[in-house]
Amino acid sequence: MMHLKNVSLKYKIPLRVTVLVIVTAFVLTSTLVYRGIDDLRNNLIANADRMGRVIADTVVEPILHDDVWRSFEIINAPFRIPEYRAPDQGAEYILILDATNKVYVATQPARFPILSDPATIEPRFTEILKALPDLQDSHPTVVEPHKSENLFLLIPIQSDGLRIGTLVMSYPKSPFTSRFYSLTQGAILITLLVLVVLLPLGMYWGRKMAAPLLQLSDAMSNITPNLPESGEIMLEESGDEIGQLGKSFKGMLAELKEKELLQQQVIASDRLAAIGRLTAGIAHEINNPLGGMLNAISTYKRHGAQDPLILKTLSILERGLIQVKETVAALLVEAKSKARPFDQNDVEDICTLIQPDVHAKHVNFASDIEIAGIQSIPSTLARQVIINLLLNAVHATQEHGQVRLHIYRDSDNLIIDVSNNGSYIPPEKVAYLFEPFTSLGESGSGLGLWVIYQIVQQLGGSITVQSEPDETQFTVQLPLREPYE
What we know:
Shape: rod-shaped
Number of domains: 3
Structural class: alpha+beta
Radius of gyration: 55 Å
Order of helices and strands: HHHEEHHEEEHHHEHHEEHEEHHEE
Oligomer: single chain
CATH topology of the largest domain: Beta-Lactamase
Distance between the termini: 78 Å
Strand order of the largest sheet: 2-1-5-4-3
CATH architecture of the largest domain: 2-Layer Sandwich
CATH class of the largest domain: Alpha Beta
Helix content: 40-55%
CATH superfamily of the largest domain: PAS domain
C-alpha cells in the first residue's frame, strides 16, 4: 500500500484541500446544529421559568387556604392556551408538591393522585426530589434525570420566606429530537451545496498551487545525465517563496552549465597541449634525418652521374621530402618576438592575397575593419591567423556564398571575427576541430586550424567556434601588449 507521503503533490494538495473543506463543513454543521438545539432549550427554559413564576406566585393563597380545586384550576390554565399546546412549547404535565414532597395537586390527577408519593409512581422522581433541598429563594432548578425523555423545572412556592410547596413542570425532550433532525437535514443540505461549489474550487486551486512545485521537480529530474539549456526549463517566476526558489534554481543551473563548459574547454586545451608536445617532439626527430636526406640528394645531383632516369627519380624523391619538410614545419609554430607590430596595412595585404581564391569561387567577400594605427601584436603571426581563417572560410563556402571579416578591439584585446554561410560544423566535431590533420573539407592537409590554435595559444589568446545552419563564425581574441615589444 502506497504511503501518503509518497503520493505526488499533484494529488496530495487537492486531497488535503478536499479534506480541509469537508472537515470545515462538518464542524460548521455540528456547531449550527448544537447552537440551534441549545437556543431551543434555553428558550423553552426561559418561557417555562416565566410561566412557572406566575403560577408559583398565584397558587400561594390557594395553598395557604387549602383550596385544592382553585390550585387545580390555576395549574390547568396554561393548557387552555392554543400557543402553549404547541408540541415544542407546552409542558407534558404540571404538579405541585407540598412541604413534605407529597402530591398536592396535578394536571394529571389520575396519574398523580393527591397526597401520593411521586417517587413511587415515577422512579425518576427519586432523582428529582434530591434537588429540592438545593432550592434557594425563588430561583428555579432544571433537572434532567438519567435516561429520561423529559426535563423538569423546579420552582419553590414560598410564603413569608418559607417554602410551602414546589412547582414541578415536566417538558418532553421529543421537540429537541425533531428539531435536531430538522436542523441536521437543513445543515447537511447546505453543506452539500457548499461542497459542490468549494470542492471544484479547492481542486482547481490545489492543482494551481502544486503546478510550480511540479515544474520545479520535473526541471530538477532533467539535470542528469546532461544539463538542459536554460530555455528548456519552464518555471513560474513570481515574488513568493516558490518563485524565488525557481529563480535560484535557474541561477544554479546557469552556473553549473558554465562550469561544465569550462571543464570541457580545459579538457580540450589539455588534450591539444598534449598533442602539441607530442607532435613537436616527433617533428624535431624527423627534421634531423630529413635534412640529411635532402642534402644527400642535392650533393648527388651536383656531383654524381648525370643519368636522366636517376635524376628524374631523385627529383621525385626531393619533391616528396620537401613536402614532408613543409608539413613538419607547420607542426613547429614558434612566435617571432622580433616581428614588427600589426597595423591596417597588414589587413589590406591580406585582403589582396586572398582575392585569387575569392574570384575563383565567385564568393562575396566583405570586410569591416575598425582599427587604426599600430596594434601591439606580432604582424607575422596575426597575418597567418587571419589568412588561414579566411582561406578555410572561402573553401567551406559554396559558389556565390558569403564570407565576412570583422576586426575590432576593446580595451585589452584585438578581436578577429571570420564568418561564412558554408557547411555546418556539428557539435561533436567542434571538440576535435583544432587537432592536427582534422580537415573540414575534401582538400587540405588539416593543419591550418592546428597552426591557428598554436599561434593563438602562444600569444595568450583564445579562439571559439559558433556554427549553425547557414552560418559559421570563428572568433579570435589576441591580448594587446602596451608598449609593443
